Amino acid sequence: MSRAWRAWCAYWFRPAPLLDLAAVRVVAVGLQLWLLLRLDHHALFAELDGLPDALYEPLAALRLLTLPFGWRVRPSGDALHVVYWLTVAAGALALVGWRTNAALAAFTLGNVAIQAYRYSFGEIHHPEALMVLALGLLALAPAGARLSVDDLRRRLALARRERRVVEADPLAGESPFARWPLLTVRWLFALIYLSAAWSKLAASGLAWVNGYTLRVYALRDGLRWGSDLGVWLGEQHVVAVLASVGALLFEATFWLVLVVPALAVLYVPLGAAFHAGIYLVQRAPFFQFIALYSVFVPWAALAARLRGRRAARAEVLYDDRCPFCIRTATLVRALDWGDRLALGGLEARWPALAASRRDLDLDQCRREMHLLLPDGSVRRGFDAFTEIARRVPLLWPLWGGFSVPGVPAIGRRVYRWVAARRTRVTACTFEACGVDGPDGASRPADDRAGIA
Fold first, then answer.
1. What is the rounded distance in angstroms from the CA atom of residue 399 to the CA atom of residue 395?
2. The whole model's pTM is what?
C-alpha cells in the first residue's frame, strides 16, 4: 500500500516548473476575461430579466451561491450587473497576478454565477464548464508564484529586508503543487472527449459516421448562423464521412496523451483545428477548450530554448550601497524574462573593472547607473535606463515614451535630480556604524538611509 501511495504522490505531486502553471493562468484568465468583456451583458441581463418566473429553474450551483438569500431566489438585473463588473475586476487582478489566489477564486465564482443564471431558463450549453473548473483548480495552486505582481512584490520586499538585489531567475523555480492542477485538466480533457465518443456510439453506433448525420447538423447550423462553410459541408458527402470518422477517432483516442505525453505534439494541434472547424461550420464557440490546451505546453522548456538563442547580455552596473538602486536593480531583474541583462554591484565589481576598464570612473559610477554593452560601449544614467527598456520587452512602453523627441533631455535632468537626492549606505556594518541624530543621540546608519 505504501508503494502505491508513493507512486500516486509521485504522479500528482512531483515538483514541476512554476512557469508552466503561471503561463496557463495567463492564457486561461486572459481568454475568459476577453470573452466576458465581449459579452453584451446589458442586453443579455435585460432579456433574461424579462422572462417569466415560470421558466426560471436555477441550477444547483446558482442555488448554492444565492443560498443566504433563499433557495430559489432570482437575482435582479442590478445585482447581476454588480456581479459582472466585480468578476471583470477580479479577472484583471488574476491576469496580472495581484493577490492571485483570492482574485482567481472571485473570478471563478463570478463566472459560475453568470453562466449558471444564464442557463437557468431551460437552455444549457457546456463550453464554459471546463474553463470554470480549470480556474477553480488554479485558485487552489501557486498560480501567482511567477509572471505576477505578487512575485514582484515578494522580490522587492526581500531586497528591502536583506539590503541586496534579488537576482533569482524570474522564470525559474519548481513546486510539488504546480503539477496536479495541470494534470487534472488533462484528465478532464480525456474524460470529456471519451464521453463524447461514447455518447455518439451509444446513440447511433457506427451509423454516426455515415456522413448524413454530420451533413444534417452542418446544413442546419450553416443556414441558421449564416455559415457558408456549414452549407458547403452539408452538400459534401465524402468530406462529411471523413470528418465524422476523424472526429470520432480523435475523441476516442485522446486519452493516449495521458499515457504517452509526447503525443500532445500531435493531438493538441489536431484538437485546436477540430474546435476551430466546429466554430467555422456550426458557430459553436469552444474557444475555452483551445485556450486550455495550454496545459499540455512545456512552457519552462520552451522558455529555456528561446533563451538559448539570446544575444550577448549587457551588464547593469548599479550602486550596491544604495537602497533605491538595489530595489531598482531587483525590479529590472524581475522584469527581464528574456534574461538579456546581467547585474553587477559596483563595490563588488570595481576591483576587476578598475583593471580592465580604464574608461570608467568610480565616482561617476557611484553618481549614476552604468550599462556596459557587449560591444564595449557604455550608457550612463537616463541613457542607460533607456537602453535597458529597449532590451526588456515588458519595458517597451517606457522605451517608446523615452524615444519621443524632447523627452530624453527632460529625462536626463529628472534622473540627475533623483540620483543627487538618493542615499548611500557606508561601508561599515549596520550594527557597528552610527551617526548622530538631531538630538545628539547615536542613530544607526541604515535609519539615515531610509531602510526599514
1. 6
2. 0.85
